[in-house]
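Q: What changes when S-adenosylmethionine is included in the input?
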Amino acid sequence: MIIAGLSAAVILTLSVPTNSSMALILSWIVLLVAVITTVSVMLPEVKGAPWVPTSSKIVNKVLAIAELKPGEVLYDLGSGDGRIVIAAARDFGVRAVGIEIDPFRVFYSRLRISLLHLQDKARIVRANFFDIQLGEADVVVLYLLQQTNNKLQRKLERELIKPNYRVVSVVWKFEGWEVIRCDDKEMIYVYKPRSETKSA
Ligand SMILES: C[S@@+](CC[C@H](N)C(=O)[O-])C[C@H]1O[C@@H](n2cnc3c(N)ncnc32)[C@H](O)[C@@H]1O
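A: The predicted holo structure follows.
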């Protein structure tokens, strides 16, 4: 699908008569939009979950139900435009780290962090969250897909080692973990990953 989209844009670009500078500019814009769409829509979807932003009401509920304490470290796996990371650092006094695969959203969220002068407390790492060590996190937030939660489950069990670690998942659940708090209406679940599995 990615290759088909890019090929269509390239063919369109090459088929435009080069004596028309307006048409040439237009075709380059089409090509640029195709590249951005490919990277921004398809890459996240293939790697874990499409971008669906959390509303500000849900952001506040997620951060409240996490019961964050000043000085804790929060990771948002798939941080999108950085809204959870920014709100956590700005309003809850924690250090917040977003992991995001889409370079355009990484750029945008880093820009917002620097405009808000939050660089000391918030940062965005451009990476695939499956490749990132989570050991320094007290709280991990996820709003992904069920199959991505399933794939991350063992990694979270292995890598979360802080004494009071917890996982907050929006919409999607984790089978077999103890739910320690939840907001059923908004589908926000706070988990303590299973300790038997951690020591196995
Ligand atoms: C549903 S959105 C959630 C965005 C943000 N956490 C929020 O609540 O507004 C999922 C995000 O995960 C990112 N994503 C998907 N797979 C990823 C991966 N393997 N590594 C890093 N980010 C990923 C997507 O680009 C997208 O921004």
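Observations recorded in class: The beta strands are 73-77, 95-100, 122-126, 139-142, 166-170, 178-183, 188-192.
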